[in-house]
Amino acid sequence: MSKSRVFVIGASGNVGKATINALARNYGEKLDIRAGVRNPEKVAEFTSLQGVTVVRAEMGKRDELIEIFKDVDVLFIVVPGAVDRVELTRVTAEAAKEAGVKHILCLGSPTPNISIGKQMYDIEEIITNLGLNYTILRLPWFMDNYFAFKETIQKLSVVYDSVDPTKRFSAICMDDLGLAAAVVLSSPEKHAGKKYLLVSDRHSFKDLVKAFSEALGKDVKYIQQSYEEAKVVWMQKGVPEQSVDGLIEYWKEANAGKYEEGNDNDFAAITEKQPTSVAAWVQRYASVFK
């Protein structure tokens, strides 16, 4: 019996890499795993992973993708950060349908009231109305964004951002996301028509600096900035202005208390494992911040 072929397009980014690693680690013997990237030389590490074949593939290239997606059973479209992400996803999904792909896994957002959330909502509409089996993984704030605080924690023992330090919000750990995506790709029939909200932990910046203080053995403080100050800092870190504006919209909603509570059970329901707490994440990567 031939192996099911799963294809991750956009596999060179953080989400794609986490998914490919989880697929290889857990299903490398059972699945034919394809990692679709624009520049295969950038993912040389994939060549040593069990069951993984790297394929040159670019979102939005309809005719090329129709050929590439032939014999693919399940496709994970890792929605890019590009301005034209909606159109790129639409063309890629339509190519998958024409090629005979049976199931599409795609990213979504739980925040339709902000600009990036509206784009992700449009993408969800495209996928759900395509006429194929689908699964949507809605993602909140990435816990791994805390790597951006490395320099100020190392030099000043400070975390700067624009959220009220007592306001809780949801976050997903990249490793948890990769595992959840891999589980869905390994048995898509169990998740057809489902829209999941993936949350590893719901915490505040007060919780975050407490975790850093305990893990690093020093007092790490939080200083709340204005939105304007935060925008300058994030753009200096190389984050595109459009993404920073979306981030600030998210923080405004967090400051309004809109993410204090919610359904945090979908990760465990998918994976039958407990998600990563912010304290556990900080402990895992503490050496990076020393």
From TrEMBL:
Signal peptide: none annotated. Residues 3-260 form the NmrA-like domain. Gene3D superfamilies: NAD(P)-binding Rossmann-like Domain, UDP-galactose 4-epimerase, domain 1. Pfam families: NmrA. InterPro entries: NAD(P)-bd_dom_sf, NmrA-like, NmrA-like_oxidored. Keywords: NADP. Belongs to the NmrA-type oxidoreductase family. This is NmrA-like family domain-containing protein 1. It comes from Paramuricea clavata (Red gorgonian).
